[in-house]
Amino acid sequence: MGGQACVFYGAAQFSRDVDFLVLADDSNFAGLTSALNDLGAVRIAVPRFDPALLSRGHAVHFRCRAPDVEGLRIDVMTKLRGVDLFELLWQRRTTLSDETGRDVHLLSVPDLVAAKKTQREKDWPMIDALVQANYHEMKGEPTPERIAFWLNEARSAELLVELTGRFNSETARLRGSRPLLAHATMGELEILREALDAEKRAEQEKDRIYWKPLKRELEACRQAELGNRAANEISGGGP
Fold first, then answer.
1. Long-range contacts for 43-52 (Cβ within 8 Å, ≥24 apart)?
2. Binning pLDDT at 50, 70 and 90, where does residue 12 land?
């Protein structure tokens, strides 16, 4: 669901970690725990590995110590801002097979784009790359769903001008939900770039608002862990 998925889609050259979105049920958590143990994965930050915290939108971060994966970071989540529930994401997933025949399940491109709408600046060029790669791969097969995705999510002013010129009727239908398409239709590139930047900043603010209470919870988790550690040191005779 993260940078590695973007690599598979051709929108990134590398990623330093692997992000997983998992189904939140007891049997799946048991399987996940077993897999993490096989990888020698150790939690490296708050919060603790707790299904209740994951269900609120937190991510749990691990570092692997097993041979062949030593140093690899793994982040696990069960809930993402602005995307559907896991069951729907799973239905829309993209499945690829590696050279050994093992399947790799990725968020679909539209769902990955939605998940990347964060306050982090580095995610927005990735959205642009994902949409452009998808358009150049699929533009010979422009289904209604793909056209709507391209018009709604393209981040390049030049690509939007091309799309609105090619798909006039679809642009007219979507202009109410994405007003900046009117500037693309007129070829007003500078105004369009300003509108795209304003659109990005509005989405980043939504993400900041979403994470504000979760950050308070993380700080509470951090203070609780520090308190527990100090108590253990005292009870164990440590400094």
1. 44/73, 46/218, 46/221, 46/222, 46/225, 47/217, 47/218, 47/221, 48/221, 48/225, 49/76, 51/24, 51/78
2. confident
Q: Are 228 and 236 in contact (CB under 8 A)?
A: no
Give the side-chain half-sphere CA count within 13 A for 146: 15
pTM, 2 dp: 0.89
In this structure, which amino acid lies at residue 138?
Answer: M
Q: Is residue 151 within 8 Å of 174, Cβ to Cβ?
A: yes
Judge whether 91 and 68 are in contact, CB under 8 Å.
no
**Structure token pair of residue 202:** 């509005």
Q: What are the structural domain ranges in the chain?
A: 3-107, 116-239
Residue 19 is classified by DSSP as: E
Any bridge partners for residue 21, and if so which? 77
CA 35 to chain centre: 22
* pLDDT for the residue numbered 236: 63
Task: Give pLDDT tens digits for 48-105.
Answer: 889 899 999 999 999 999 999 999 999 999 999 999 999 999 999 999 998 899 999 9
Digit-coded pLDDT (tens) for 194-217: 999 999 999 999 999 999 999 999
HSE-up (13 A, CA, CB side) for residue 5: 23
